Amino acid sequence: MNRIAVIFGTRPEAIKLAPVVRSLIQRATLETEVWVTGQHRQMLDQIMNDFEISPDVDLDVMAPNQTLADLSARCLMGLSHHLSLRKPQLVMVQGDTTTAFIAALTAYYHQIPVAHVEAGLRTSDLLAPWPEEGNRCMIARLANLNFAPTNWSRDNLLREGVAPQTIHVTGNTAVDALFLAMKKLGPVPVEDKRKVLITGHRRESWGEGFASICEAIVLLARKYPEVEFVYPVHLNPVVRKPVFETLQGVQNIKLMEPLNYFEFVSLMRSSHLILTDSGGIQEEAPSLGIPVLVMRDETERPEGIEAGTSVLTGTATARIVSVVSNLLDRPSAYRQLAQCANPYGDGQAANRIAEVCCRFLNGMS
Ligand code: UD1
Ligand code: UDP
Predict the structure, then answer these.
(1) Mutate which of 97, 204, 261 to test ligand 2's pocket (most atoms within 8 Å of Cβ)?
(2) Which bound ligand lies closest to the C-alpha atom of 264?
(3) First and final C-alpha spacing in the chain
């Protein structure tokens, strides 16, 4: 029987691959294995528990304050060992993390075909987001199957000379995961207070960027004492230091540990607006009709901006304060952004991906 190794390492990869694993294991002609690098530990395990996935291989590579080079080396050596032992016919990776790139590279070294989920996202700036833009460009060079979430991402791949027959437009599996969560959560509870939900972790914002984001949050919290600012803080120590130093103790700012996926979706649904630099949240919020302010200078997800549900704010304090204030003060401005749109998918991406993988493997055997 053909064996597929679905390899991931971080929270967003686990969320976006969970629906694909679900769909793959229903195919009788395939043996599906889940391999995790453990690039994230606690944040990965939370999601694995949510979706009741237990890994067949766990490299457990995470170290505190890991560097890109150390992390890459540990993933490469560990994955190479298991690819030699278990010899899958196809390796699946998702997105643009170190795990995704190194897994694709290691599979290539072993001459095993690679399927890339969420292919073709681009800012065309190798330093933003860094190193994700480089990672996804390099995966595109190596992949045999490219699952582009939208027509825009497909066109990016075509422009780079990726063979058209390897590209399949499927929608983003983030929407599949979100639909699963909504089904589980039931109706949205009515809130008495307006909540602004915040997340942030991007490497290119470390230092100055995070300092000015935190300053903006403090100013906003003082300006709007009746609004609650809720912030589940990423476990990266480089992020936690400025966040806790600047925001802890402000009365209407609630800092919390990372939430499991279902708790987080529940919090998103009950929020008035979301302030984030996350990739996945840019895809989820439009489906929920919650405006997203993206604290980055560029995004590889322009579909939300075009659909009118997201706004790029950058990381400068004054701009963040002004955009948030406008939405909190002016119901008409808020209503314009708070529309439900699904530019990223229809919840069926995982089934399409599983189907193409089966066809690909049957054609090979
Ligand atoms: C990584 C990805 C990024 C993705 C993000 C999702 C790379 C280069 N970056 O960034 O693309 O958007 O994950 O969150 O692949 N830590 C813990 N426990 C955890 C997770 C992280 O303690 O469960 C701490 C560790 O000290 C770790 C550090 O955070 O060394 C950084 O983790 P890492 O995966 O290297 O980078 P992220 O910033 O999380
Ligand atoms: N998320 C979560 N718990 C949290 C914060 C986020 O489950 O406390 C989910 C969120 O719904 C989204 C994903 O994690 O699906 C985004 O992860 P992150 O922002 O870390 O990574 P990115 O998407 O930027 O790569």
Answers:
(1) 261
(2) 2
(3) 9
> Predicted confidence band at 270 (pLDDT cuts at 50, 70, 90)?
very high
Are 140 and 115 within 8 A, CB to CB? no
What pLDDT shows up at residue 364? 62
What is the position in ligand 1's atom list of the atom closest to the CA of 98?
15
Tell me what percent of the residues of the chain surpass a pLDDT of 70.
99
Residue 28: pLDDT over 60:
yes
Which atom, in ligand 1's list, is nearest to the CA of 12? 6
Confidence of residue 365 (pLDDT cuts 50, 70, 90): very low
d(CA 39, CA 41): 6
Amino acid at 176: D
Four-CA torsion 202, 206, 209, 214, nearest 10 degrees: 90
Instruction: CATH 3.40.50.2000 in the chain: give the residue spans.
Output: 2-171+348-364, 186-338
40 is catalytic: no
**CATH T-level topology, domain 186-338:** Rossmann fold (3.40.50)
Task: Report the atom number in ligand 2 closest to the C-alpha of 256.
Answer: 8
Task: Please pick, among 22, 40, 122, 234, the residue that the annotation labels catalytic.
Answer: 234
DSSP string of 188-255, one letter each residue:
PPPPSS-EEEEE---GGGTTHHHHHHHHHHHHHHHH-TTSEEEEE--S-HHHHHHHHHHHTT-TTEEE
| Mean pLDDT taken over the chain | 96
> Would you call 347 helix, strand, or coil by DSSP?
coil
| Residues 355, 149: Cα–Cα separation, whole Å | 15
2-171+348-364 has CATH 3.40.50.2000 classification:
yes
- Tell me if 130 CB under 6 Å of ligand 1: no
